Amino acid sequence: MTKCGSISESGEIWVIGEQCQGRLEGVSLELLSKGRALSQSMDVTLASVLIGDEVEETAWELIFHGAEKVYLLEDVRLRYYQSEAYARLLAGVIEEHGPQVVLIGATEIGKELAPKVAAKLRTGLTAHCIDIYVGEVDAAPYLIHVVPGWGGNLVMQIIFPQKRPQIATVKPGVLSKAVRDENNKGEIVRVKFRLKDEDFSRIETIEVVEERPKGKPVESADVVVCGGWGMNALGDFSKAQELADILGGVVAGTRPAVDKGWVEEGRMIGQSGKTVSPGLFVSLGASGAMHYTTGFMGSKVVLAVDQNPQAPIFQVADIGIVGDLREVLPYLIEELRKERMTRNL
Amino acid sequence: MGLEILVCIKQVPHPDHFSEIRVDIGKGRVIGEGIPVIMNPLDRNALEEALRNKERFSGRITVIRMGRPQLQKAVEEALAMGADRAVLLYDKAFARPDTLATAFTLFYAIRKLGKFDLIYCGNETVDSGTAQVGPQLAELLDIPQVSGVQEVSFVDGKSLEVRRAWEHGHMKIRLKLPALLSVTRDINKPRLPTVQGIMEVPRKEVIIWNAKDIGAPLENVGLRGSSIYAAGIHEYKTERRREIVQGSTEEKVRRAVARLKELGAI
User: Fold this and answer.
1) CB A339: neighbour CB atoms within 10 A?
2) What would the mean pLDDT of A19-38 be, rounded to a whole number?
3) Which of B150, B253, B261, B263 to mutate to test binding with chain A, by most A CBs within 10 Å of its CB?
């Protein structure tokens, strides 16, 4: 058992599963891989919580991805995220079972649910962590929450000296997903609870509208071609799309590109948008403001094209091409097309 | 009867100058002196929505901010945009809070101010960007709250229907007043202060309160009220190769592609 601070703890590590119509969010699987690593080094149980309606199959998915136990809360009225009901039930089950760590995906829902639960429990909460590990502070072991701030310019190591549980939201797309294994054994614990009318009388989710994203989501692409304000010189994003097609990747954009209407909001890279960690990230005509570059810092290789040799983007790129996009892009497309053809031969 | 609306605002360093922010490793603190400050961008959307509500239903808009009274840029801008009065919370005891301690400080001040029908916050700030203060303040006030708000419509004088952001589309939420909404930039386009608005600023009421004024127990605010603690802080440096290819455009591209191939990226 690891001693965290002056306290020796045996409480479980929890991963809050997020699902819609039985489909788990990717970040839930990312949290399970991190949770597994932490639970092994601290020698405690890794458990998960799942709230929904008829989601037992999904609970088994959590087990196949590493949860040793799943606390399951099912009710027809919990089919969709319900602000007050979810927060009250989650805080209640945490109080009852006393986990020492609770990990929540920093999704649109997680970012609302986590602070409500932390406030109910009067405990601490770290926001959009990019890593969590067991480390030392002043020679004492602590769980260290790594939190980016100021547009990704600064990184803080945050500890919880006393309050429990330690609750953290974790940024999607940063950690690797847990591996699925149907041989994993686990236990489903059906939590008994009673819903009250008050849970829905002040606030209720009345409609959930799924909008099919056009094309593959940026988070799961191996290659991301991201255009910035500099794409203005070309008038549109067609050349970026062409490049992405050749590389078998997807297009994305910076805030100015989204504002221009060249790419949809869901494809915006950066602090207030998506974080991606592809094998290759191509930045076209973006100067490299911190709140943008923080969105792709986990990429394996970064190629940047910009006409300003002083642009900060070249400080965070592996390969830089200084030049006019109108000249560089056609050559780049041509060269990569040749490259692909030789490979196919 | 008009609406009593509160807008929570924060003054933040200008994002274009984030790269100039340094850290004092020894003290584990951020050094941001001399960096231009602005009202947090989403807080302007929050205020804009409040102004539109007031234009439609009449009422009063109060803005509230925690921070040093010498630095008034955000408050002045809010008053110039059309807020009716400002409350400034300043005390050494409020310093270095986590989000729950910040929410507590706002909570004690709001308790003293009286009842509000609607509280608006920007969904997140550009500096720490936690998006946590809004939901936590709502918990302490025991009122419903929605984050990621993209659209607000009044069903009647007592309830709202809002559209909230969601990764796979959006959600429609119905909620009763009083309520707290954390808004995104999709909700509206904030107005610029008018000359007349700027001229009216000196005549508007600015209340300055400390911990004692709002009856804040010191164990719930500032560093003392915080559950989390920054054990370390450092500048984030990405380890990259930073190779700039040379030659004519054609040569540069050929070299870049060759390097990508060597690195196994294509």
Assistant:
1) 17
2) 96
3) B253
A213 in any annotated domain:
no
The residues spanned by each domain of chain B are 3-225, 239-266
pLDDT of residue A121: 98
Measured between CA atoms, how close is B80 to chain A, in angstroms? 26
- A152 has a chain B CB within 8 A of its CB: yes
The whole-number pLDDT of residue B1 equals: 66
Token output for B182: 């954390």
Distance from CA of B210 to the nearest CA of A (A): 23
Q: Regarding the domain delimited by B3-225, which CATH topology (the fold level of the hierarchy) does it fall under?
A: Rossmann fold (3.40.50)
Q: What is the pLDDT of residue A194?
A: 96
Structure ipTM over 0.85, yes or no: yes
Task: List the single best residue of B150, B152, B168, B234 to mutate versus A (max A Cβ within 10 A).
Answer: B168
CATH of the domain at A15: 3.40.50.620
Q: Is the CB of residue A83 less than 8 Å away from at least one CB of chain B? A: yes
> Is residue A223 located within the same domain as residue A196?
no
Q: Specify whether A274 is located in the same domain as A166.
A: no
pLDDT confidence of residue A219: 87
Q: How many domains does chain A have?
A: 2
Look at residue A81 and tell me if it is in a domain: yes
CATH number, residue A317: 3.40.50.1220
Residue A124 is assigned to a structural domain of this protein: yes
Whether the pTM exceeds 0.90: the reply is no
Whether residue A235 sits in one domain with residue A148: no
Scanning B113-142 for CB atoms below 8 A from A yields 124, 126-136, 138-140
Confirm or reject contact between A162 and chain B (CB < 8 A): yes
pLDDT at B76 over 50: yes
CB contact under 8 A, B136 and A122: no
Smallest Cβ–Cβ distance between B144 and the set A83, A317, A320 belongs to: A83
Which of A201, A235, A265 corresponds to the end of one domain?
A201
CA distance to partner chain B, nearest, from residue A316 (Å): 6
Taking residues A4-27, report their average pLDDT.
84
Taking only residues 179 to 208 of chain B, the set having a beta carbon closer than 8 angstroms to any beta carbon of chain A reads 179, 182, 186
Model confidence at B28: pLDDT above 70: no
